[in-house]
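Below is a filled-in request sheet from our internal design queue. Each sheet records the structural input a requester submitted and the sequence that came back. We keep these sheets so that new team members can see what a complete request looks like end to end.

REQUESTER: design group, bay 2
PRIORITY: normal
MODE: inverse folding
CHAIN LENGTH: 178
BACKBONE (tokenized):
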């Protein structure tokens, strides 16, 4: 057995041309009642939401609730299923983010339209803003995701502008005079 095969670089899935990551497969299993393509889309969408929520190493309850709401809205899932999907996505992001972030985002970019990518970008800002402020770390992560989705910088700026009042970097410090 070669070292590359031992480490999974030449897996049967890769040889067959499947771009689906293990993370997306795990979440997809929770969505077994949906069409496979739709389940993959929702799994990748939820994972990327979790990627932003965990970027500052602290996931608030309001961020989790916003993620669940968005997964229900975008995915058309019942609340119970959205809760499971978000929990799996968040946990996988914490455990495997260093290796999975780019792979899952690239997969989402390949299976989504420009409009869906822009919708995701808006959802990322909504999750980050849900706890009353978008930190510089979260903002930077969203910018990275935007780039990985192959969106133009002006797209990122246009969506970011909608959330400008929630950017902590633009807020005046407490007690600062006008």
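RETURNED SEQUENCE:
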């Amino acid at each position: 057995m070669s070292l590359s095969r031992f480490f999974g670089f030449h897996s049967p899935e890769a040889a067959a041309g499947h771009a689906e990551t293990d993370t997306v497969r795990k979440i997809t299993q929770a969505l077994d009642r949906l069409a496979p393509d739709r389940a993959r889309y929702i799994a990748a969408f939820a994972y990327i939401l979790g990627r932003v929520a965990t970027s500052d190493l602290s996931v608030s309850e309001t961020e989790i609730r916003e993620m669940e709401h968005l997964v229900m809205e975008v995915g058309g899932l019942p609340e119970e299923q959205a809760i499971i999907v978000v929990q799996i996505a968040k946990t996988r992001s914490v455990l495997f983010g260093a290796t999975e972030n780019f792979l899952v985002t690239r997969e989402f970019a390949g299976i989504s339209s420009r409009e869906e990518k822009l919708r995701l970008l808006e959802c990322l800002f909504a999750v980050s803003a849900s706890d009353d402020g978008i930190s510089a770390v979260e903002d930077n992560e969203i910018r990275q995701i935007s780039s990985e989705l192959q969106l133009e910088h002006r797209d990122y700026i246009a969506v970011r502008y909608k959330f400008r009042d929630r950017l902590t970097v633009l807020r005046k410090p407490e007690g600062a005079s006008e």
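SHEET NOTES:
- The mean pLDDT is 85.
- The CA atoms of residues 28 and 144 lie 24 Å apart.
FILED BY: M.R.
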